[in-house]
Amino acid sequence: MSGRIRFAPALAVLLAAAGTSAHAASLEPFTADYQARYLGMQATGSMTLAAQGGNRWKYSLDISNQLGSLSQSTVFEEHQGRLRPLSSSDRAAALMKKKNVDATYDWETGQATWSGDVKPERRGPVKLQPGDMDALLINLAVTRDLADGKPLSYRMVDEGRVRQMQWEVVGKEPVTVDGASKQATKVVRRTDKREMYVWLVPGMPVPARVLQRENGIDTVDLTVKSVR
């Protein structure tokens, strides 16, 4: 069973160097509903951004069908124009398998740690650098960075690992949102085993579509239905 959807993605597409501009558009709460395919079957999906008070926000992704469910969330704050993770949770269930991982990003001590269903060598601590994000949060950042014309290059700190994430623009394609055709910019991130494609529409705070492939097989496919 796959772990986090790495919109960087971190799925992330992702997000000089790692971070968003102090001049980027201010955050606004939203709920996006998606038509999805997960584990080879139709599913429902949603992304939400909700204010938590005190300059804190919660960004969540939920996907579910008869075979399983995936729930990821990150609590973060805006700090010097960047999106800075404070904590995150990753829940997944499929057939007889379950996964529960929690993370803490302590910026006072400059360390990130993980607990739950994670290998001992992946529990940390990992030293944090300004601009570091987790896999899910990069999804928000890449949307803002693309609009600002910034490089889609980020440092992801997630489940005890540090990875440099580089995304590239591969063209433009039409997508349908709320029954209307929109022109989207298509970006991609590739590793040895995984490809992540993301379609971004100007003015939309979330991807219009996200497609993840592992070893050449589609594992997650999200297509937006509405944003409110």
Radius of gyration: 16 Å
What is the CA–CA distance across the termini? 31 Å
- Identify low-pLDDT runs: 1-24
H-E string = EEEEEEEEHEEEEEEE
Structural class: mainly beta
* Percentage of residues in helical conformation: under 10%
Please count the beta strands (DSSP E, at least 2 residues each). 15
Largest sheet: 13 strands, antiparallel
Task: Note the overall shape.
Answer: globular
Tally of alpha and pi helices: 1
Q: Tell me the strand order in the biggest sheet.
A: 8-7-6-5-4-3-2-1-15-14-13-12-11
Instruction: Determine the strand fraction and express it as a percent band.
Output: over 45%
Q: What is the topology?
A:
Layout (H helix, E strand, L loop, with lengths): L29 E9 L2 E13 L2 E9 L3 E12 L2 E13 L2 E10 L4 E6 L9 E2 L7 H13 L5 E6 L2 E6 L1 E10 L2 E11 L3 E7 L8 E6 L2 E11 L1
Antiparallel strand pairs: 1-2, 1-15, 2-3, 3-4, 4-5, 5-6, 6-7, 7-8, 9-10, 11-12, 12-13, 13-14, 14-15
What does this structure look like?
- The structure is a single chain.
- This protein has 228 residues and is mainly beta.
- The chain is built from one helix and 15 strands.
- The strands form two sheets. The chain has a 13-stranded antiparallel β-sheet with strand order 8-7-6-5-4-3-2-1-15-14-13-12-11. A two-stranded antiparallel ribbon has the order 9-10.
- A hairpin with a 4-residue loop joins strand 6 and strand 7 (111-116).
- Residues 1-24 have low confidence and may be disordered.
Task: Identify the notable features of this structure and list them briefly.
single chain, 228 residues, mainly beta, 13-stranded antiparallel beta sheet, two-stranded antiparallel ribbon, 1 helix, 6% helix, globular, disordered N terminus
